[in-house]
Amino acid sequence: MSTLSISPAFTAPSSIRLPRTSVRLTRRGRLVVFLAALALLLLSAFFLGAVAVGSESPGQAEPTEIVMVGTGDTLWGIAAEINTDGDVRSTMAEIERLNALESVALSAGQKIRVPVSDD
Predict the structure, then answer these.
(1) 114 pairs with which residues across the strands?
(2) What is the pLDDT of residues 49-108, one digit of tens each?
(3) Is residue 65 a contact partner of residue 78, using CB atoms and an 8 Å limit?
(4) How far is it, in rounded angstroms, from Cα 45 to Cα 8?
């Protein structure tokens, strides 16, 4: 086997001193830099979140009524009762949006908002 050694192509004369470019931080210095970066990140997230929430324009209030879920009631059944145009799925999606439901599961005694039909 052969050994490979790497030597620099150019070596500075010993009379010329190159400035030392590495920065060494103490433990406290690293903590200060970390906390400053963290504060900057949190501040940025706060302002971006405020802009995102504040940019929504308020709309007209939707006419709704509150319905108490009975034993055996399903979201499909409630949507079918109040639906006038025949599209039960869109009414279900509207009820889910109005109540910020994560699933279609309902509990007996739960109060939910439903859109008022234009009968």
Answers:
(1) 65
(2) 776 655 455 667 778 889 899 999 989 988 888 887 778 898 888 889 888 888 888 888
(3) no
(4) 47
Instruction: DSSP letter for 103, please.
Output: S
Cβ atoms within 10 Å, residue 79:
22
Q: 83-100 as b/e, with b when 16 or more CB fall inside 10 Å? A: beeeebeebbebbbeebe
Q: How far apart are CA 59 and CA 72, in angstroms?
A: 35
69 touches 109 (CB < 8 A): yes
- Tokens standing for 40? 């900057």
DSSP string, 50-91: HHHHHTPPP-PPPPEEEEEPPTT--HHHHHHHH-SSS-HHHH
First-last CA distance in the chain = 92
pTM of the model: 0.48
